[in-house]
Amino acid sequence: MADEDIDLTPDLLLQAYSVGIFPMGSEGSDQELYWVDPHERGILPLDGLHVSKSLRKTIRRGGFEVHINRDFRGMMADCAMREETWINETILDLYTALHQRGFAHSVEVWQDNARIGGLYGVSIGAAFFGESMVSNAPDASKIALVWLVARLRAGRYRLLDTQFTTDHLLSMGGVAISRGRYQAMLQAALDRQGDFGALDENASMDDVLAQAEVS
Description:
With 215 residues, this protein is an alpha+beta fold. The protein contains eight helices and nine strands. 37% of the residues lie in helices and 25% in strands.
């Protein structure tokens, strides 16, 4: 972490991701940002997603829809709706600008015309940098993660960066790796071009599960 305040632009933000660092805000009401470069980096190997039996049952039961980029800024705002958040107005504006330029995407879970959870992140080359996820209904963020992995695998991505590890991510196959190993994986991913739109948004739940998991 760096102590200096930073004046970020969308272009500088893309450069930062390409060398393995990312910004965070101190709290939602604080507009200042700082750089983060963890000694251990969280990733979710795209050939290692774990979908529990209960989650598989929930997915196959249905009753929800998954949309891509239906309301990107709204998805970010949902992620910020918690007691402590680093997603301040500066972050909202920066990532909305990246989204408008095609570098940031949301995966949103909807039920009865209301968003119940999802995630958002940044896409550069064949790397996807997950920023935040939220559930306002059981398993909603896990469903979004399954859809994300299916989309990344379909689009021939090489890296899903989760920044840190949590119990939630570890339960689904996330791991922590060294900064050096992460840097090597990052550069390999940036040398390729992924296609975030490769998966049909209307793909069936069985097709999404088949794409997300390695048999």
